[in-house]
Specification:
disordered N terminus, four-stranded antiparallel β-sheet, alpha/beta
């Protein structure tokens, strides 16, 4: 059974496979049952970073000036709903808008109807990006520089405050459907039992799996993790026999949540596992519902399922008349595997080249953001936390005011490209051999533990094909200093334990 009214002591972050369905008392959509009890939590304040803005003009502008939060909510307006849609391992070149071979008309339409962030930086693997999105913290400063594994006993510190916590405190109904990848619940056989699932971090409802690579039809895990697999029903029981294709199941849960949440504002996090492996197998039973439409191409089938999910979520919002009162944010958690495309960028998942960290990203808010607009300034996934709270008119609680990301809301709401980012974005990837990078608007330096240091001028070489470390001593010295200063702030990667 899932939790029954107890929140266990909190150590750190863990990655699990298997799927789970959870909800707080009174928070389940119709048909759910067995909601676990809610317990109080104390949150520890963590130090954060600097401020600064960047952005592009919406239909509705606001005043305040650079460095000031920009709310697009007027006095008397309803608080807007907030929807995050995050794909898994979707590369820049995987969507048809960016030259992808698989047609993605519904994802493309989000970009046509919204404001695109053309220089949006994530992390090269799943858990770091998802932790940064939830907390507004740079994942490396959280000690999360790789995927989080059950064998290591890892999970995000339960002292961290999330955007769901902040919105829940403002009366929002909160739900996440899909891949959590930031920690387990207390029931999977992990010793000691750890409760680092979504309900510990401000969510009312969770239906999904804790880790990666869970099969879309069988619920088996593509990795050898030695843990339970499958879905968990609303009573808190493992229910591997729950039938369906997980992308479609998550989408249906999301649509039901949208329809059941009116009129209260809601925060919906669609944390899709698509297009992560395992790939569908031809002639398998049960049959993948998208494989035929994809012409037998397994990777295309995953993309089609994701695109169809986006279609249904957006359609549900618009059909309910919520389009002008709902902020939709779409992105991917990292670049693609060898199955996908990051073109025209170099590299992919597991790389600090642009192909691993530079992904599609867009905001849609009807009547607020100009359709088809673009922001070219450098923005990181850790910036979304403060930015969304600002534009939605929700306060950042005092304990949350120091985040590592910056608030880019002013330029979303006012002057186009009015200010460059005052700092850069640091990234680290600690998979067997640590690698570090630091990116500004113009330059990126990559420091390999083995292989030396490389420097690129991204204004003229976005494909990172010309290493200028040996020819631009001034830029190299400046970027080395920035990288070194940032590295000096880092804790040990994936610390154990991290209470």
């Amino acid at each position: 059974m899932l939790y029954r009214g107890i929140r266990l002591a909190r150590p750190l972050l863990m990655f699990l496979a298997g799927s789970v369905s959870l909800c707080r008392p009174g928070a389940c959509h119709p048909g759910a049952a067995g909601a676990p009890a809610e317990a109080s939590r104390a949150r520890a304040q963590r130090p954060g970073g600097t401020g600064g803005q960047t952005g592009s003009p919406p239909v509705t502008s606001c005043t305040g000036g650079p460095g000031k939060p920009c709310s697009l909510v007027k006095n008397g307006d309803l608080k807007p709903n907030i929807v995050f849609i995050v794909a898994d391992d979707l590369g820049w070149g995987d969507i048809s808008l960016k030259g992808g071979k698989t047609k993605t008309p519904n994802i493309d339409k989000l970009f046509a109807d919204g404001i695109e962030m053309t220089t949006f930086m994530v992390n090269p693997v799943c858990s770091p990006t998802r932790s940064a999105l939830m907390t507004g913290r740079n994942a490396s400063l959280l000690g999360i520089s790789d995927t989080l594994g059950v064998g290591k006993g890892e999970h995000m510190s339960t002292k961290e405050n999330t955007i769901a916590d902040a919105l829940h405190a403002q009366g929002y109904k909160t739900a996440v459907y899909g891949k959590w990848h930031l920690g387990p619940g207390p029931f999977d056989g992990v010793k000691p039992a750890i409760d680092a699932g979504p309900l510990t971090f401000g969510f009312d409802v969770f239906y999904g799996h804790y880790g990666a690579a869970t099969d879309y039809l069988t619920r088996d895990n593509a990795y050898t993790e030695g843990i339970k697999h499958g879905l968990v029903n609303e009573q808190g029981n493992w229910a591997k026999t729950d039938a369906g294709y997980t992308t479609d199941m998550f989408t249906k849960k999301g649509v039901d949540f949208i329809n059941a949440s009116k009129p209260a504002p809601f925060f919906l996090y669609m944390a899709y596992n698509s297009v992560h492996i395992p790939l569908p197998v031809p002639n398998a039973s049960p049959k993948d519902p998208y494989l035929t439409a994809a012409g037998g191409n397994a990777y295309s089938a995953l993309i089609l399922g994701l695109d169809n999910g986006v279609r249904q979520i957006v359609a549900a919002i618009d059909a309910a008349g919520l389009g002008e009162n709902t902020i939709i944010f779409f992105t991917s958690d990292n670049g693609p595997t060898s199955n996908g495309s990051a073109l025209p960028f170099k590299g992919g998942k597991h790389d600090l080249w642009e192909g691993g960290v530079h992904v599609p990203a867009v905001f849609r808010w009807k009547g607020k953001f100009t359709a088809g607009d673009k922001i070219t300034r450098l923005i990181g996934v850790e910036d979304i936390f403060q930015t969304v709270l600002s534009i939605s008119g929700n306060p950042i609680p005092p304990a949350y005011t120091t985040r590592d990301g910056i608030d880019v809301s002013y330029n979303l709401g006012a002057e186009r490209e009015a200010a460059t980012r005052p700092d850069g974005i640091g990234r680290s990837f600690d998979w067997k051999i640590p690698v570090y990078s630091y990116r500004t608007e113009q330059y990126k330096i990559i420091e390999f533990t083995r292989g030396g240091t490389k420097l690129y001028d991204l204004k003229v070489d976005l494909s990172e094909s010309r290493n200028i470390a040996g020819s631009n001593a001034i830029a190299l010295s400046t970027m080395k200093a920035k990288l070194s200063a940032w590295k000096n702030t880092l804790p040990p990667a994936n610390p154990n334990p991290n209470p």
